[in-house]
Amino acid sequence: MAGRVAGKMALVTGAAQGLGAAQARMLAREGARVLATDIDAVGAAATAAAIDAECGPGTGFALGHDVTSPDDWDAAIEEARDRLGGLSILVNNAGVGVRGTIETCTYEEWRRGFAINVDGVFLGCQKALPLMREHQPGSIVNISSIAGLIASDTMPGYNASKAAVWMLSKSVALYCAKMGWNIRCNSVHPTFIDTPILDGIVANTGKDKSVIMGKLARQIPLGRVGEPDDIANGVLYLASDESKFMTGAELKLDGGISAM
Fold first, then answer.
1. CA–CA separation, 219 vs 227, rounded Å?
2. pLDDT at residue 203 in the model
3. Edge-to-edge order in the sheet of strand 138-143
4. What is the Cα–Cα distance from 185 to 174, expressed in whole angstroms?
5. Where is mean pLDDT largest: 8-12, 193-197, 212-216?
6. How many CB atoms lie within 10 A of CB 180?
7. Mind listing the domains of the chain with CATH numbers?
8. Which member of 107, 158, 175, 237 is catalytic?
9. Is 175 labeled as catalytic in the residue annotation?
10. What is the pTM of this model?
């Protein structure tokens, strides 16, 4: 089914690499014009260039964007209006890990995690809705984590921030429905995915990547670490009209972890 989001206008945050880049490229392949934003403006531009090379000039656009900044969000929404012609898909993908147990996690790390993982999503939803109302039907896809549904003793900051994204998504979904808008909001909950963020985790262990990847894979019933397109395919479904009766829901892309 080619052209699953044909004619739609999408903004994807955290799109310089990893999941965000995969999501941006997937949406573009299926017919959307895409604004890739990231605090790494050079990386976002590379994603947009790759989209144009694959899908044709004028398909991908880029913007430097700090998702914790209300002013940057205003600029991103105006860029979507000017370059895309509007906005019908918002993917709040930007996020960071939060290190430390309840005893070792610093307050600064806790605050930084919530600023990016939660405040960024809140601002994105709030700032995007006025423009999305002009271009219904619309879909907001918030990238949470399986860690937002299943707790760990080693990452309270990440657990708590991603759980907040999960519940925020439901509240936004109910608000849009109550207002009578054809704008849906859902959350996506990945497990371990082979991205540069995972490479950073591996580097911190000082062990060979294959050893760490094997250890992670053994925790997943399907027996493998996910690939970025495993998540991008789920985002594509939620962004498309195929999911027009799905809102306030969570899509678990976790290889079966949450079934145990």
1. 16
2. 76
3. 60-64, 33-38, 9-12, 89-92, 138-143, 183-190, 250-253
4. 9
5. 8-12
6. 7
7. 9-191+228-259 (3.40.50.720), 194-225 (no CATH)
8. 158
9. no
10. 0.96
